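Moderator note: this is an archived Q&A kept for reference. The question asked for a predicted structure of one protein chain; the sequence and the answer are reproduced below.
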Amino acid sequence: MNKEWIYKNPDPLLVEEIATEFKISKTLAALLVNRNLTDKKEIEHFLNPDISKLHNPFLLPDLEKAVLRVRQALNSQEKILIFGDKDVDGVTALAILVRSLKSLGANVSWALPEPDRHGLSVSILEAQAKEGVKLIVTVDCGTSNVEEIAVAKNFGIDVIVTDHHLPPEKLPEAYALINPNMEKSNYPVKELAGSLVAFKLAYGLMFSYNRNFNQEFIVLDLETTGLSSDNDEIVEVGAVCVRNFVQLKEFHSLVRPNKPISEGAFQVNGISKDMVQDAPPIAEVLPKLLQFIGDRPI
């Protein structure tokens, strides 16, 4: 069969411009253009990655639940098995979690699929049950292992799935199913490698040792009639409740003031006299706000 090679021909002027500005080779600049990376901020982000720019791992479904289960296993020294896949993505994911858990003193081992198989198998589950394994974390697989995970459950083994493959119509009854392609996922990017999903679990696990883990906080924003919150009246109250930096719920209300809204305040907050003329007074808004806040720190 004859194959036809199709070559992209990036704009040479654009390639030259990117190579010069970012002090990179024309070959790399051409690759960036071919991948539609031409925005300067995007190029800077691509060339200089920073862990602080990664999305919050707790936006992934079940990640908080999985972290708590792993912490339970760590605290009681349960036997944990990390089960991977035999390709580069699967082995990388496996290495990330095994090394992370070992650094925390986990009683952890690892395994790969049997020859000519992908994912969990009943024979592997039987062997691990005999070894006393109580928790299995899959990496780069597991979303389609409906029957196998049901068998694991019968053996008294909890299974946490970390995967990136498209979910089937029927999902396994895993203890936690971490996959950016799940319908309930709030993670903004769907095209994650399996190794990155495993990294997100490790990331969340490390954060669980921070004293702010699983604590709810209130982020509060007030807008006033002027530009001084000490001397002016409140015209808008906004608050969000967050846990692990994920928004859980929000509160919002305009407030009718007695003082006029200054021109400077309007230019800053965009709130006009007409917008607040039918709003409730602060005496009505404040009790609702305090109820929303509860005993959470602000």
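Archived answer notes: The longest helix spans residues 88-103.
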